[in-house]
Design a protein that fits this description.
Blueprint (H helix, E strand, L loop, with lengths): L2 E3 L2 H25 L2 H4 L7 H10 L10 H13 L6 H8 L12 E5 L5 E5 L7 E5 L5 E6 L5 E4 L7 E5 L5 E5 L2 H36 L1 E2 L2 E2 L4 H26 L4 H26 L9 H16 L9 H7 L6 E3 L2 H17 L14 H10 L17 H14 L4 H17 L2 H12 L5 E4 L15 E5 L2 E12 L6 E7 L11 E7 L5 E7 L5 E13 L3 E2 L5 H9 L2 H25 L1 H4 L6 H28 L5 H15 L1
Parallel strand pairs: 1-11, 2-4, 12-15
Antiparallel strand pairs: 3-7, 4-5, 5-8, 6-7, 9-10, 13-14, 14-18, 15-16, 16-19, 17-18
Helix pairs in contact: 1-4, 4-6, 5-6, 6-7, 6-8, 6-9, 7-8, 7-19, 8-9, 8-19, 11-13, 13-17, 14-15, 14-16, 17-19, 17-20, 19-20
Length: about 650
C-alpha cells in the first residue's frame, strides 16, 4: 500500500522547482515552436525543439524523476508539441544508456500483425523500440529511408507505422518488470500530455466566455457556461492531484493506474466542454482549439495499445484484493490514528445497533471525553489538546470510515465550539464551552431556509430590535437533530437594507424550548430525522448575539473553517462504503463485476479515483492553511466532487 508523504515545506520547495522548470520549457516552446507550428500538420520546427530538449537534458529523465517529466509533458501538451520526449525516457528505462548513443528512439507496442502502429515524430526517429505484449524480450529496429509509413490519424502531426517483416531487429532480453515500468510510464505520460492540452483548451474557453457577448452580457454569466467551466476545472484539478500522487509513488502500480485511468477519462470531457463554449470557431483548423482537441483524442487513443491488463485498477481492487491506496499524514498524525483505531477496535463493532433515532453511543462519548479527544483541537486553556489539523483529520477519518456513531458530538464541538472561542463573549465561553466539550450540551445549525440553502446571503429569517433583545420570525429547514438539541446556532437577518446582503446577518444562540418555536420532524429515506423549525415572534435577548451585530458572516466563516476536516470525514465514510462494496464483488467477480471493461468495473475505477482525488483536495487545503495560503478553491472542489461521488 502506497503512503503519499505530505510535508508542507517539502511540497513548497518541489512546487517552486517544478514551476521554474515549466517556465523554462514554456520559453523554449515559445521561441522554437511558434503558434503557426501548433496549428497544422507540418511540424517543420520540430527538429529545433528536439535539439533543445536534448541539450537541456530533458531526455535523461526517468521514472525516479517523474514529477519533472510529467511537468514537461504537460507543457508539451499545452503547446501541442509532439517531440518524442516520453518515448526517449521510456526507452531509457528498458535499454542500457550506451546501447544506442545519439539515437532518437520512438516507442511502439507489438500487436497481432506485422505492423507496429501509432508511432509519433517519425521524421526524427533513428530507431523504433518495440515493447512486447508479454514477457521481457524487446526489439529495436533501425529506421532507414522510407522504413516508416505514414498512416491516417487524428493526431495533429500524424502517426506512422513500422512493418516488422520488412527489416531486421536487434533483440534484447530485459527484466519483465522494467517492461511493466515502461508501460506504466508511457500511459501516465500520455495522460499528462493530454491533460496539458485539455488545460490549454479550457483556458481558451474561459477567455472566450469572458469576452464573447450574447443578449447584452458575456456568455460566462450564463449558468450553463459557468457550470461547464467549473466542471472542467474540477476534472483538471482532480487529474492533476492524482498525477502528482502517482509521480511521487511511481513504484505503486495501483496508484499509477488509478491516476492514469482517471486523467485519460477526464481530458476528453474537458476538451469537449471547452469546444462547446468556444462554439463553431473552435472546430475550424485555423483556431488553436481544434488542434488541442486532436492532441487530446490522439493521446488518449495512443495510450490504449500500451495498456497492461494485469495493472487494471478494477482487477487490482477486486480479483487481487488490493486496498484503496492510503496517504501519509505525518508521523504524529499516523501515531494518533493508531491510538484511535485501537480504541475503536476494542470498543465498537458494526454489529451493534443503536436505538432508533439515537444521536450517539453514550459509552463511546464517555471514552472520548476521558481521553480528551472530543475537544482535541481546542486550546489547552479550555481543556483541549491543541492537536494539529492532520491529527484531527486522522481522528475524523477513523470515526467516519468505521461508522462510529459519535459524529453528532463533533458537529457541536468543532463548528460551534470553535466559533464561540473566537467570537463569543467571556460569559458565553464560560456558559457553553464546558458542556460542549463534555458532550452534554448539543447544538444544531440554523442556516438553511426554503429560499436560502447554500446561498446564506439571501436568508430571510429576520430579527427586529426591541428593548433588551430581538424579535425573530422565520423558518429554518433541513436541521439535523433539531428535535434532539438544546440550542439553535441561528443565522438571522438583522439589517434588511445592508449592502452587500451578507453584511446584514447576525448569529444568535437560541434555546430550542423558547416560547414561540415550533419544531416539525421530517423523516428521510435513509432513516435520518431532520426538522423544520418555525420562529413566531420569538424573543431573543441581546446576550445571545455571538460576535458583532451584523457581523455574523465572519462568525459563520469561522464555524465553517473546519469544513476541510469534516469533508475528509465525508470521504472516509464513502471509502468505507466502497470497501464494503468491493468485499461483496470479490465474492463472485464474474457475476457481479462482469468482464474486463464492463460498466460495473468502470464505475468502481471512477469512484475510487474521485474519492482519492477529494481526499487529496482536503490535504491540499490543510497544507494551504498551514502555509497561510488561500484555501477556498480546494475546499470548494472537494465539496462538489465529494457530493457527486456520494450520489
Amino acid at each position: 500500500m502506497a503512503l503519499t508523504k505530505w510535508n508542507t515545506s517539502e511540497v513548497a520547495v518541489a512546487a517552486a522547482e517544478l514551476s521554474d522548470l515549466r517556465a523554462a520549457a514554456r520559453g523554449v516552446l515559445d521561441r522554437h515552436w511558434p503558434i503557426e507550428s501548433r496549428l497544422g500538420r507540418a511540424g517543420t520546427e520540430l527538429r529545433a525543439v528536439w535539439d533543445q530538449a536534448v541539450a537541456l537534458g530533458w531526455t535523461e529523465l526517468d521514472a525516479s524523476e517523474a514529477p519533472a517529466l510529467l511537468s514537461l509533458l504537460d507543457e508539451l501538451g499545452r503547446a501541442n508539441c509532439p517531440i518524442p520526449l516520453l518515448d526517449a525516457c521510456a526507452a531509457a528505462s528498458v535499454l542500457e544508456s550506451s546501447a544506442f548513443p545519439g539515437a532518437t528512439i520512438v516507442v511502439g507496442r507489438a500487436g497481432a500483425g506485422p505492423y507496429v502502429e501509432y508511432l509519433e515524430a517519425a521524421e526524427l526517429a533513428t530507431h523504433v523500440l518495440v515493447l512486447p505484449e508479454e514477457g521481457g524480450r524487446v526489439e529495436v529496429y533501425s529506421v532507414g529511408e522510407d522504413a516508416l509509413e505514414s498512416t491516417p490519424s487524428i493526431a495533429p502531426q500524424g502517426w506512422a507505422r513500422l512493418d516488422r517483416s520488412a527489416g531486421e531487429a536487434q533483440a534484447f532480453d530485459v527484466d519483465p518488470d522494467s517492461v511493466g515500468s515502461a508501460l506504466r510510464l508511457f500511459r501516465l505520460g500520455l495522460a499528462a500530455r493530454a491533460l496539458g492540452a485539455a488545460r490549454r483548451a479550457h483556458a481558451l474557453s474561459i477567455e472566450h466566455a469572458k469576452a464573447r457577448e450574447q443578449f447584452g452580457q458575456p456568455i460566462g454569466r450564463f449558468q450553463a457556461v459557468s457550470h461547464r467551466a467549473a466542471t472542467g476545472l474540477i476534472d483538471l484539478e482532480s487529474s492533476r492531484v492524482l498525477l502528482d500522487d502517482a509521480a511521487a509513488a511511481f513504484e505503486d502500480d495501483l496508484v499509477v493506474a488509478l491516476a492514469t485511468q482517471h486523467a485519460l477519462a477526464a481530458a476528453p470531457r474537458v476538451v469537449l466542454g471547452a469546444m462547446h463554449t468556444l462554439g463553431g470557431m473552435g472546430f475550424h483548423e485555423e483556431h488553436e482549439g481544434a488542434w488541442l482537441f486532436r492532441r487530446v483524442q490522439a493521446d488518449v487513443a495512443r495510450a490504449q495499445p500500451f495498456a497492461d491488463d494485469s495493472a487494471d485498477v478494477s482487477l487490482l481492487l477486486i480479483e487481487e484484493g488490493r486496498a484503496q491506496p492510503d496517504v501519509d499524514l505525518g508521523e504524529r498524525a499516523n501515531a494518533f490514528r493508531s491510538e484511535v483505531a485501537a480504541l475503536f477496535d476494542e470498543s465498537w463493532s458494526r454489529d451493534r445497533v443503536l436505538a432508533e433515532d439515537a444521536q450517539f453511543d453514550p459509552a463511546l462519548r464517555e471514552q472520548l471525553v476521558q481521553r480528551g479527544w472530543l475537544g482535541a483541537g481546542w486550546p489547552k486553556e479550555w481543556g483541549g489538546q491543541e492537536r494539529t489539523p492532520e491529527e484531527l483529520l486522522a481522528l475524523n477519518e477513523e470515526i467516519r470510515y468505521r461508522g462510529i456513531p459519535v459524529r453528532r458530538l463533533f458537529t457541536t464541538v468543532n463548528i460551534v465550539g470553535g466559533a464561540i472561542m473566537k467570537h463569543g463573549t467571556d460569559e458565553q465561553k464560560r456558559r457553553y464551552l464546558p458542556g460542549i466539550k463534555s458532550g452534554e450540551t448539543l447544538f444544531c445549525l440554523g442556516y438553511s431556509e426554503p429560499d436560502a440553502g447554500s446561498d446564506l446571503a439571501s436568508l430571510r429569517t429576520a430579527a427586529r430590535k426591541v428593548d433588551g433583545g430581538w424579535i425573530v420570525s422565520g423558518q429554518k429547514i433541513f436541521t439535523t437533530f433539531g428535535h434532539r438539541s438544546h440550542y439553535h446556532w441561528l443565522a438571522v437577518r438583522t439589517d434588511a437594507e445592508a449592502t452587500p446582503p451578507h453584511a446584514g446577518i447576525s448569529v444568535f444562540i437560541v434555546p430550542l424550548d423558547t416560547e414561540g418555536i415550533t419544531i416539525q420532524e421530517n423523516h428521510a429515506l435513509n432513516g435520518e430525522t431532520t426538522t423544520t423549525t418555525y420562529y413566531d415572534e420569538v424573543f431573543v435577548p441581546d446576550e445571545a448575539v455571538v460576535g458583532e451585530v451584523n457581523g455574523g458572516w465572519q462568525v459563520i466563516g469561522t464555524a465553517l473553517s473546519v469544513e476541510r476536516i469534516a469533508m475528509g470525514g465525508n470521504v472516509a465514510e464513502l471509502r468505507g462504503l466502497l470497501d464494503r462494496l468491493l468485499d461483496a464483488l470479490r465474492e463472485d467477480p464474474d457475476c457481479l463485476a462482469g468482464a474486463p471493461g464492463s460498466w460495473q468495473r468502470e464505475a468502481i475505477v471512477e469512484l475510487t479515483g474521485w474519492l482519492r482525488a477529494v481526499r487529496l483536495f482536503v490535504i491540499a487545503g490543510l497544507n494551504a492553511m498551514a502555509a497561510d495560503r488561500p484555501t477556498r478553491l480546494p475546499a470548494a472542489m472537494a465539496k462538489v466532487a465529494g457530493g457527486e461521488a456520494a450520489e
